[in-house]
Amino acid sequence: MNIQIAKKFLKIIGQIISSIFIFLLFIFLVFNWPIINRNEQMKIGVAFSPVFSRSLGLNWRENYLAILEDLRVNKIRLVAYWTEIEKEKGVYDFSDLDWQLNEARKRGVEVILAFGIKVPRWPECFIPEFYKQNKQEREIAILKMEKELIARYRDYKNIKIWQVENEPFLPFGDCVEGAVDGKLVDKEITQTKSLDPTRPIMVTDSGELSLWIAAAKRSDIFGTTLYRVIHKKPLGYFTYPLGPAFFKIKASLVHLLAGEKKIIISELQAEPWGPTWITEMPIEEQYKSMNPQKLEDIIIYAQKTGFSEAYLWGAEWWYWLKIKQNRPEMWDTAQKIFSQDKIAPITSSP
Predict the structure, then answer these.
(1) Domain count along the chain
(2) 175: alpha, beta or left, given left = phi > 0 and alpha = psi -120 to 50?
(3) Are residues 208 and 312 in the same domain?
């Protein structure tokens, strides 16, 4: 009797495992369903961070001007770093951001301006030391700074989108526990809309690791990250087994559950993701996860998602390769991309 029960139990377990395997195989096939058509009219921009540029040992102003003048980008995502603006409690210094926005405005470059506690680049959260201990004081202070910022820049016609926080619902980065939550994001959005009802608000989330709904339902425009090759211990280099259909399906889910809205790629991988810091890796190691061919490939992949815009993540690194390493090939490839504003089909496209 016990043997019969054991056999039945094992049979049931086998059926469950088989069902799970078939389901996962089905999902894998759906997510990787071939897509032939691509949006060759996708607009390509870049993100820029003076914080990251400085960390590479670069003159960030020269780096920025090279992006505007040599690459001739038409769209750029800039960041208001709280730690850079309020170095002394209650005293604001917007001079660096003024300079960036004015240089972009001179050239008619359209800007997404990101602000908040959690903004692009490591350590993700940029909180002045004197606000780290008291959550209530910190939230009052960030809202006050943002109020000053919006009042200062709302007349800049080349600022097209306000980005509130960066991936606020993704638990990633070196942050004070509970520094950013849905309640704070809602307060920031409400204040931004009250101060400037004319511009859309973007909230972002991880392309591969999040469901998007919490961010998308709060925003006028939703921004997703998109990465292809990452490095994870102990696996090493890992290519996401996801085709462009994965992003199309998630976009459909957003439209169903959060309403019809514009979706863009706010962060498209165009720099290495390796086992250590960029400057500590040989160029050959860096090129395992990003190189000129991979840059062209990922743009073609992004075009197949059907989204209308994508902002490349890594322009500071391209400049570092050119200036510090005498390796201009990434910069030259980017120059070709922005001069054509499109990528021709290539045989190795995903």
Answers:
(1) 2
(2) beta
(3) yes
Close Cβ partners of 190 (under 8 Å, ≥ 6 residues apart): none
Are the C-beta atoms of residues 307 and 314 closer than 8 Å to each other? no
Question: Which tokens in the block code for residue 219?
Answer: 């925003």
Note whether 214 and 231 are same-domain residues.
yes
Closest residue by Cα to residue 311 from 79, 102, 137: 79
Dihedrals phi, psi of 225, to nearest 5 degrees = -85, 160
Give the domain extent around 9: 1-31
Are residues 131 and 2 part of one domain?
Answer: no
Q: Is 305 in contact with 37 (CB distance < 8 Å)?
A: no
Q: Which of 103, 97, 61 is nearest to 80 (CA)?
A: 97
Q: Give me the CATH number covering residue 129.
A: 3.20.20.80
pLDDT in tens, the chain (350 residues): 577 776 677 667 776 776 665 555 545 555 677 788 899 999 999 999 999 999 999 999 999 999 999 999 999 999 999 999 999 999 999 999 999 999 999 999 999 999 999 999 999 999 999 999 999 999 999 999 999 999 999 999 999 999 999 999 999 999 999 999 999 999 999 999 999 999 999 999 999 999 999 999 999 999 999 999 999 998 899 999 999 999 999 999 999 999 999 999 999 999 999 999 999 999 999 999 999 999 999 999 999 999 999 999 999 999 999 999 999 999 999 999 998 754 544 444 43
